[in-house]
Each structure stands twice: as C-alpha cells, then as structure tokens.
C-alpha cells in the first residue's frame, strides 16, 4: 500500500521504528510492489520501503520524469523526512543507477549519507553502455522486456494492460539512456553488489567494477543462476541484506 504520509513510498507491513530504513528502487517499469515479498523475510529492525515513481501504481496519472537530473532532486526532496534517520539505499537493475545517483547527490549536498548502498544486477556507472530501448516500437519493446524476465507475461501479452504500463517503462529507460555521468568523487559508504554468474545483462567484471565507486567497504556476492536470481534466490538475498544492514548499524551506533 502507498504510505499515506508520502506518495513516493510503498509499505507492505506497518511502518515501524526499526533500527534502519531500507529504501528500495525497482527495475525499469517496476513499482514499489517489486519488493512486496521481502516483507515476509526481513526482521522488524528493518523498516522496508519500496519507491513508487510517477506514472505507475497509485501514481499512474502523474507525469513521469524523463531525465536523471530532474528525478534525483525530486527524490531527495520527496524522501527528505525518510533520509533524516538511519537509512540504506537498494537498487535493482536500472534502479541501482538511480540509487547511486541519489547517494552521490546527497553527498554533494552535504546531506546525511546512507549507511549502505546495495545494488543488484547492474554494471558499475563507469561501464554503462548507451542504448535506445525507450525508442523501440511497442512490439520490440515487449520482446526486450520478455527476454529480461522481470515483467509478468500476463502484462506483456495483453495490449490493454501493457498500455497502462508502457509509459512508465519507457520513461525509466529514457532516464538512464539519456543520463550522462558527471565527475564525482567516490562515495565513502559501504557498497554491496549482488549478481548472478550467468546473467546475460551484466558480467561479473562489470559488477566488480563498482569497487571504484566507494572508498568504503566493498562486498561482491555472485550467485548461481541468471537474471531471475532476484526472485529465485530471494530468501538468500534478503538474508544477506538483513545481515549487512544490522552489522552496519551495530558499527555506526
């Protein structure tokens, strides 16, 4: 459900006063519901939140952001209250780039940094290759999404359903396909990277290259499987994230 206090966030269990808030950014076209099942796995010490971008879910009628340099300041403002207490950022696929951009924006602005940045299934920012998925005809776009396996076939096969989804997914692709990296110093926070050995969308060396994005602690976890590891290995992933977050909080108290 949408957090009644903040349309940018979705919650799947009552808001708590946990030790740390975990703010999760979904893949292109995804919504906060991407992380719904995580509510069953994470301990109460972790306050789970999924980000809801405009043009999807409860914000379907809102105009989407199309540029990273417009989206990130809006996120920083919209999440300001949630970033005023201990928090971590987590990004899946293209959501990893948005989470990293938000972390660097906050550092540049002298704001409270995340306790941890966790990224899933996305190459390091320095290795992002330009693509033009957001310009593909609908038929080719659905084929591309079907190949990634992160959008339910029921949506992709139904033109009516997909028409509701299409604006958001094109906007998300346009955000990172028009993105240009600015010169930024490395983050100082711990970064944990998750990937799968047989994921066709990103190689292990591309995941390892995140090491250059922080002067803090770096952890790379490579699981068996392909891009579907995010759901197939969910409980292993949530267990690792929970352990990392609680360990970070213990150190930073």
Automatic annotation (TrEMBL):
What keywords were assigned to this record? Answer: Hydrolase
Note the InterPro entries from the entry.
AB_hydrolase_fold, TEII, TesA-like, Thioesterase
Q: Which residues form a coiled coil?
A: none
Presence of keyword Hydrolase: yes
Report if keyword Hydrolase is assigned: yes
The superkingdom listed in its UniProt entry is Bacteria
List the Pfam families. Answer: Thioesterase
Q: Which GO terms describe its biological process?
A: lipid biosynthetic process
Any GO molecular function: hydrolase activity
| Alphabetized Gene3D superfamilies for the sequence | alpha/beta hydrolase (3.40.50.1820)
Thioesterase TesA-like domain: from which residue to which, for each copy? 23-241
The UniProt entry, under SMART domains, shows: PKS_TE (SM00824)
The entry sums up its family as follows: Belongs to the thioesterase family.
Query: What is the protein's given name?
Result: Thioesterase
- Native organism: Acrocarpospora macrocephala
């Amino acid at each position: 459900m949408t957090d009644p206090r903040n349309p940018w966030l979705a919650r799947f269990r009552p808001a708590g006063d946990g030790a740390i808030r975990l703010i999760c950014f979904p893949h292109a076209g995804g919504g906060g519901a991407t992380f719904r099942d995580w509510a069953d796995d994470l301990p109460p010490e972790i306050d789970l939140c999924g980000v809801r971008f405009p043009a999807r879910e409860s914000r379907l009628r809102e105009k989407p952001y199309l540029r990273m340099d417009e989206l990130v300041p809006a996120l920083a403002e919209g999440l300001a209250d949630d970033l005023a207490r201990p928090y971590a950022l987590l990004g899946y696929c293209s959501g990893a780039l948005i989470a990293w951009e938000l972390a660097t924006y906050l550092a540049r602005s002298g704001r409270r940094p995340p306790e941890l940045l966790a990224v899933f299934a996305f190459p390091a920012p320095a290795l992002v290759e330009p693509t033009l998925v957001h310009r593909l005809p609908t038929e080719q776009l659905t084929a591309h999404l079907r190949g990634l396996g992160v959008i339910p076939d029921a949506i992709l096969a139904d033109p009516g359903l997909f028409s509701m989804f299409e604006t958001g997914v094109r906007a998300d692709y346009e955000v990172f396909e028009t993105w240009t990296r600015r010169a930024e110093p490395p983050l100082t926070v711990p970064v944990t990277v998750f990937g799968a050995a047989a994921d066709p969308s990103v190689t292990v060396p591309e995941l390892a290259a995140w090491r250059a994005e922080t002067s803090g602690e770096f952890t790379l976890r490579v699981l068996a499987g392909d891009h579907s590891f995010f759901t197939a290995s969910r409980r292993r992933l949530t267990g690792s994230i929970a352990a990392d977050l609680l360990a970070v909080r213990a150190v930073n108290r």
